[in-house]
Specification:
Elements: E1 4-9, H1 13-18, H2 21-29, E2 33-37, E3 54-58, E4 68-72, E5 78-81, H3 85-90, H4 101-104, E6 107-111, E7 116-121, H5 132-151, E8 156-161, H6 174-177, H7 185-196, E9 199-201, E10 215-216, E11 228-229, E12 232-237, E13 244-249, E14 261-265
Parallel strand pairs: 1-2, 7-8
Antiparallel strand pairs: 1-14, 2-4, 3-4, 5-6, 6-7, 8-12, 9-12, 10-11, 13-14
C-alpha cells in the first residue's frame, strides 16, 4: 500500500472551489487522503462533490472562520475533534482565547492501521505579536503534548499550516523578517521542540536549500516573484522516515495564498 497524503490551507473551501482550483488539485495530485485547513465553512455549506472519499469536518463555531477537514478514500479506524479536553485544561487554553480548538476547529485527528494523522491550523500570532505569548506558552505545548501522546501508541503524521518558518531557508527574506510574525524566536523554538520530540520534517528528507515556499502574500506580486514562506508541513515520526518515498510542494496549484504539499508513504 502506498497512500498519498496531501495538505492544503485553502483559505476558504467555497472560494477555492469557485475558482475551479480544488478539482484541479484532486486531478493533478490524486491524493488518497486530503487534509485541509482554514475551510471557513460548515459541511452543510460545502460545494464539493467528492466521490469515494469519507468526509470529516471540524468547522469553527464562528461563521466563515478557521476550521479543518479530512477527506479519505481509506476509512479511518476512529476520528477525534480538537485537542483532548485534559490537554486544554492542563495547558490553560480557555474559551476566551484563540487556542480553544473546540470553538475554532483547529485540530482533527484520524487513526489508521499504521499511523495517526493529524491536520492542524496553528494560530497566527498577528502582526503586532499580541498572540505570541499564548501561542508560545499554551498552544504549542498543548499541541505537542497531543502528538507525543499519540506517538506512544503508533507512529504519527501531522500536517498543516503551522504558521512558522523553521530556518532561514524557509523564507525568501529572512533578515528582513527576524522577530516578525512567523519568524520569531518563540515560534521557531516551538518547531524545534517538535523535532526534538522525534518528528521529522519530511520535505527536508528529499530537498535542501531555499526557494521552496508554500505561502505568498497577495500583495506586491509576491507569488510571481517567489517571495514566499514555507509554513505548511508534513512532520512524521522518525520511525516512519523509511516509509516516505516522496515529499512535494505543489506550487503550480493556485486558488489560495497557500499551495498544497504532499507525501507518499509505502508500507
Amino acid at each position: 500500500m502506498s497512500p498519498k497524503l496531501a495538505s492544503w490551507n485553502v483559505n476558504g473551501i467555497r472560494a477555492v472551489h469557485g475558482k475551479g482550483s480544488f478539482d484541479t488539485f484532486l486531478n493533478e495530485v490524486q491524493p488518497d487522503i486530503v487534509c485541509l485547513q482554514e475551510i471557513k465553512a460548515q459541511q452543510a455549506q460545502s460545494p464539493l462533490e467528492l466521490s469515494g472519499y469519507h468526509e470529516f469536518w471540524n468547522a469553527a463555531e464562528k461563521p466563515g472562520y478557521s476550521g479543518t477537514a479530512i477527506f479519505s478514500k481509506i476509512a479511518p479506524l476512529a476520528v477525534t475533534y480538537g485537542l483532548p479536553r485534559r490537554l486544554e485544561t492542563k495547558h490553560g487554553l480557555h474559551d476566551d482565547e484563540f487556542g480553544n480548538t473546540n470553538l475554532e476547529g483547529r485540530v482533527l485527528t484520524a487513526e489508521f492501521d499504521d499511523f495517526f494523522l493529524v491536520t492542524c491550523y496553528t494560530p497566527n500570532v498577528k502582526d503586532d505579536l499580541s498572540r505570541l505569548r499564548v501561542r508560545h506558552e499554551k498552544w504549542d505545548p498543548a499541541f505537542l503534548s497531543h502528538v507525543k501522546a499519540l506517538q506512544k501508541k503508533k507512529p504519527v503524521v501531522f500536517c498543516g499550516d503551522l504558521n512558522v518558518a523553521h530556518t532561514d531557508d524557509d523564507l525568501a527574506r529572512p533578515k528582513q523578517n527576524v522577530g516578525k510574525a512567523g519568524f520569531t524566536d518563540e515560534e521557531r523554538a516551538g518547531f524545534v521542540a517538535m523535532l526534538a520530540a522525534g518528528f521529522v520534517d519530511s520535505f527536508r528528507l528529499f530537498t535542501q536549500g531555499n526557494g521552496h515556499y508554500t505561502w505568498w502574500s497577495y500583495r506586491g506580486g509576491a507569488r510571481a516573484s517567489n517571495v514566499g514562506w514555507r509554513i505548511d508541513y508534513f512532520l512524521i515520526s522518525a520511525t516512519l522516515a523509511p516509509n516516505i518515498v516522496a515529499a512535494e510542494i505543489h506550487d503550480d496549484i493556485t486558488g489560495s495564498d497557500h499551495c498544497p504539499v504532499s507525501i507518499t508513504l509505502a508500507f
